[in-house]
Design goal:
The strands form 2 sheets. Strands 1, 2, 5, 9, 10 and 12 form a 6-stranded antiparallel beta sheet that branches. Strands 3, 4, 6, 7, 8 and 11 form a 6-stranded antiparallel beta sheet that branches. The radius of gyration is 45 Å and the shape is rod-shaped. The protein has a domain at 96-218: Jelly Rolls (Sandwich), CATH 2.60.120.760. It starts with 10 loop residues before the first helix and ends with a strand. The protein has helices at 11-32, 74-80, 88-93; strands at 95-100, 104-106, 111-112, 117-121, 125-137, 145-152, 155-156, 160-163, 174-177, 180-185, 188-199, 206-218. It has 220 residues and is of the alpha+beta class. It has 3 helices and 12 strands.
Length: 220
């Protein structure tokens, strides 16, 4: 029976095996090493580049396309904080206020109380006005109604009425009213007026002690 003996590889054979392994290793490395500038937009998946993968300071302002972007300036930001985006200058000219101690005697006829006020609007606005009127009856023992209203450019608001004195015994009794008015106006200067009347009894009479009138414009 013939027997086979394994012989040790020759030095040349061993060197050739090592060379083959090194060669294969180099080929494998070359297969996964990307050439310079070989990766473009087509090779990148959506959301592949995340914040953590970008080195701090690598993306500068010159690398960002700002075409079409707008940044509000300080004036625009201030205007946006106002009602309906109106400028602060418009609101300063679109309100007014007066207060008087008139000692104004009124009888059975509507009379202007204090001084009318004017407000200026730069567009179509709603003007709102309010007033507070304090009066006393003018005839002892006689019941008197204090009747007041506000006009905006001649258009009257609703009357507000208070009974100044019951008939009999009282010489001075206070009456207070708070009339309101509202009107939509165009651009321009508008006049707000407070008017009061004394009504009731044979000789209706009252005296306005003091008053306050305010008007302002709002969008709408």
């Amino acid at each position: 029976m013939r027997t086979f003996r394994l012989r040790a590889p020759s030095p040349a054979f061993a060197v050739s095996i090592v060379a083959l392994v090194v060669a294969l290793g180099g080929t494998s490395y070359a297969a996964f090493a990307l050439p310079k500038n070989s990766v473009g937009t087509k090779q990148l998946k959506n959301r592949a580049v995340t914040t953590t993968k970008i080195k701090n300071g690598n993306v500068t302002a010159s690398k960002i396309n700002t075409t079409g972007l707008t940044v509000p300036n300080a004036a625009n930001a201030a205007n946006a904080a106002n009602l309906a985006g109106l400028g602060s200058s418009e609101y300063r000219t679109a309100s007014n206020y007066t207060q008087s101690s008139t000692a104004k005697a009124i009888t059975n006829a509507s009379a202007t109380i204090g001084a009318p006020i004017q407000i200026t609007t730069e567009g179509t606005r709603r003007v709102i006005a309010s007033a507070a009127v304090h009066a006393v009856n003018g005839v002892a023992g006689t019941g008197v109604y204090l009747v007041c209203h506000i006009t905006i450019d001649g258009t009257s608001g609703v009357n507000d009425t208070d009974y100044a004195s019951p008939a009999g015994g009282f010489t001075v009794v206070d009456a207070s009213v708070s009339p309101l008015a509202s009107a939509v106006v165009g651009a321009g200067t508008h006049t707000v007026t407070l008017l009061c009347d004394a009504a009731g009894g044979a000789t209706p009479q009252a005296t306005v002690v003091d008053d306050a009138l305010a008007g302002w414009a709002v969008a709408g």
